[in-house]
Q: What sequence folds into this?
C-alpha cells in the first residue's frame, strides 16, 4: 500500500515538481503514471524510492512513514522495492546470472539461496538459456528482462518501472509489459512510469495522469489523454 | 542472518587501486614521503635526546692535547691542571681509550673503527669536572696558559647548542610535516573520489537494491587503508636504508655523537608507520565518501 498525503516537492532551484499530491495505491495494484516531460513522474518515483525527500506532506509505504525514515533505515526500506530503468543499468562485465545474483549479494543473501533463486528468476523472465551471456550479447528486450529479474531478486512487494519500454522495439515492449502484468498477478504492486500512449491504452489498467506537478486524472481502465 | 564475504570487499578495493593506477601511485608516493620525513624527524629527535642524556655531566670540560706529546709532557700538563683550584676532578683519557669509547658508541658499526687502532687519529685528553658554573671561566683562562693544550670543549655549551638545534628542527619539521600530511590526505581524497566516480552506476544500483551505507563504503575505506598500508611498508624500508647509509657515512667522522642503531627503533617505527599510514588512508577515504554515498 502506498499513500501520498498532500505531498509537495520543491527543488532547491525553486522548481515545484509535485504540488499537493494525494493518492492511494493498494497492495497488488497495477498503475500507470503518465504525463509529459516535466510533469513530475520521475520525482514521484524518486520520492517512493526515498531518493528525494518531500518538501511537505507524508508518504506511507506499507505502513511506514518514509518521510521520517532515518538515513540508516533507507537501505532496508528499499529492499522491499524492485526498480527497473529505461537504460537497464546492468553491469557490462557481469554475466546475466551475476547481474541478478549481485542484487542478492549486496543485501547479504547466503550463496546457497542465491544459487537456488537466480535460476528460478531467470526462468520467470524466460532467460534461463542466456544465464552465461554478457549484456552486450543480448537484445534490448532481453536486457530489460534481466533488469526485471534483478528487480525481483530480493522478493520485493512493489516493482517500480521507469520508462521500461523506452529503449526497446514495440514487439519487445509488449513482451516486457506482459511480464510486468504476470509479476502483478503474482501479487506484487507494479507502478509503471511511461509516456507511451499505445501501451497505456492497450492494457486498460489504472492510469494516474500528471501535469505540471498535479494529478489531472486518476481512473481505472483509463486512457492516455 | 546476513553474510558478507571479506574477500569481496578486499577484491573491490584492489580493483579500485588498479583502475586508478596513476592516482593510487601518487597517493602512495606522497604518503610514503610524508612517513619517511616523519621517521627521519623522529629518529633525529630520539638521537638528539640520547646524546643529551649522554652529556648528563654538564659541569665538565674536555681538554684535548696536541698530537705528538711525550708521556713526560702529558704528565706535566696533568700536573699543571691539578694546580687549578676550581678543577674538582681530573681524569686522563688516552687516545686508545677514546677510540674504544667511540667504537662502543657506534654499536653495530663498531668494526668501522678497526683500522684506526694501528694509526690512531685521536689525541690524549683530560676530563675536568667542576662544582660551579662560574668556575668555568677561570678554568678556561688557566687552560689557555698551558702549553700542549690543543683545544677544550665545554659540555654545557654542547648541551645548549644541541637543544637549540633540536628546537629549530622541531619547528621546521612540524610545519613541513603538517603540510605534507594535508597534501597526502588531499591526494587520497581525490584518488578515492575517482574510484567512487568510476563505480558510480554500480553504486546507484547498489543503493536501489538496498545495500547499506557501509556495504557501499567499505571497499573504498579498504582502498584508502591499503594505499596507507603500502605507503607505510615502503616508507619503513626506505627509512631503514637511508638511516643505515647515514650512520655508515657519519659513524666515524663525528666523534662526540652517538647514533642509535636502527634495529633498536625498528619495531616502534614500523608500528607507527602502519598506524599513521592506514589511519591517513582511512581518513582520506571517509572524507571523500561522505558526499558520495549519503543518498
A:
Amino acid at each position: 500500500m502506498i499513500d501520498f498525503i498532500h505531498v509537495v516537492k520543491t527543488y532547491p532551484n525553486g522548481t515545484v515538481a509535485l504540488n499537493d499530491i494525494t493518492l492511494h495505491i493498494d497492495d497488488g495494484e497495477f498503475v500507470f503514471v503518465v504525463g509529459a516531460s516535466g510533469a513530475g513522474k520521475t520525482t514521484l518515483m524518486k520520492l517512493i524510492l526515498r531518493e528525494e525527500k518531500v518538501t511537505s506532506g507524508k508518504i506511507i509505504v506499507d505502513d511506514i512513514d518514509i518521510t521520517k525514515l532515518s538515513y540508516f533505515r533507507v537501505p532496508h526500506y528499499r529492499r522491499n522495492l524492485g526498480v527497473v530503468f529505461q537504460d537497464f543499468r546492468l553491469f557490462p562485465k557481469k554475466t546475466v546470472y551475476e547481474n541478478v545474483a549481485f542484487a542478492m549479494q549486496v543485501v547479504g543473501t547466503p550463496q546457497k539461496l542465491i544459487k537456488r533463486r537466480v535460476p528460478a528468476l531467470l526462468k520467470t523472465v524466460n532467460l534461463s538459456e542466456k544465464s552465461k551471456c554478457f549484456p552486450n550479447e543480448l537484445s534490448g528486450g532481453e536486457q530489460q528482462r534481466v533488469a526485471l529479474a534483478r528487480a525481483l531478486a530480493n522478493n520485493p512487494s512493489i516493482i517500480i518501472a521507469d520508462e521500461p519500454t523506452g529503449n526497446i522495439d514495440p514487439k519487445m515492449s509488449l513482451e516486457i509489459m506482459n511480464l510486468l502484468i504476470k509479476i502483478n498477478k503474482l501479487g506484487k504492486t507494479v507502478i509503471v512510469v511511461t509516456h507511451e500512449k499505445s501501451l497505456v491504452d492497450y492494457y486498460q489498467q489504472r492510469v494516474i495522469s500528471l501535469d505540471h506537478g498535479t494529478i489531472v486524472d486518476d481512473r481505472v481502465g483509463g486512457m492516455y489523454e | 542472518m546476513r553474510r558478507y564475504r571479506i574477500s569481496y570487499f578486499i577484491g573491490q578495493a584492489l580493483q579500485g587501486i588498479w583502475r586508478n593506477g596513476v592516482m593510487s601511485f601518487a597517493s602512495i608516493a606522497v604518503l610514503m614521503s610524508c612517513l619517511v620525513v616523519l621517521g627521519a624527524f623522529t629518529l633525529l629527535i630520539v638521537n638528539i635526546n640520547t646524546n643529551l642524556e649522554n652529556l648528563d655531566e654538564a659541569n665538565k670540560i674536555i681538554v684535548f692535547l696536541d698530537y705528538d706529546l711525550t708521556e713526560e709532557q702529558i704528565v706535566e700538563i696533568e700536573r699543571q691542571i691539578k694546580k687549578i683550584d676550581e678543577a674538582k676532578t681530573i681524569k686522563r683519557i688516552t687516545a686508545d681509550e677514546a677510540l674504544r669509547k667511540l667504537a662502543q658508541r657506534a654499536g653495530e658499526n663498531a668494526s668501522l673503527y678497526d683500522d684506526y687502532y694501528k694509526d690512531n687519529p685521536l689525541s690524549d685528553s683530560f676530563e675536568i669536572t667542576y662544582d660551579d658554573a662560574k668556575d668555568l671561566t677561570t678554568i678556561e683562562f688557566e687552560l689557555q696558559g698551558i702549553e700542549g693544550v690543543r683545544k677544550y670543549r665545554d659540555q654545557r655549551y654542547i648541551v645548549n647548542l644541541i637543544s637549540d638545534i633540536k628546537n629549530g628542527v622541531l619547528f621546521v619539521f612540524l610545519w613541513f610535516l603538517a603540510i605534507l600530511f594535508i597534501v597526502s590526505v588531499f591526494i587520497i581524497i581525490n584518488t578515492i573520489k575517482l574510484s567512487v566516480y568510476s563505480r558510480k552506476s554500480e553504486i546507484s544500483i547498489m543503493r536501489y537494491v538496498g545495500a547499506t551505507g557501509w556495504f557501499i563504503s567499505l571497499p573504498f575505506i579498504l582502498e584508502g587503508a591499503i594505499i596507507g598500508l603500502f605507503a607505510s611498508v615502503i616508507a619503513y624500508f626506505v627509512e631503514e636504508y637511508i638511516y643505515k647509509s647515514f650512520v655508515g657515512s657519519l659513524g666515524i667522522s663525528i666523534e662526540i655523537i652517538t647514533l642509535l642503531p636502527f634495529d633498536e627503533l625498528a619495531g616502534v617505527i614500523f608500528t607507527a608507520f602502519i598506524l599513521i599510514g592506514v589511519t591517513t588512508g582511512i581518513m582520506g577515504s571517509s572524507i571523500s565518501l561522505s558526499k558520495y554515498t549519503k543518498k
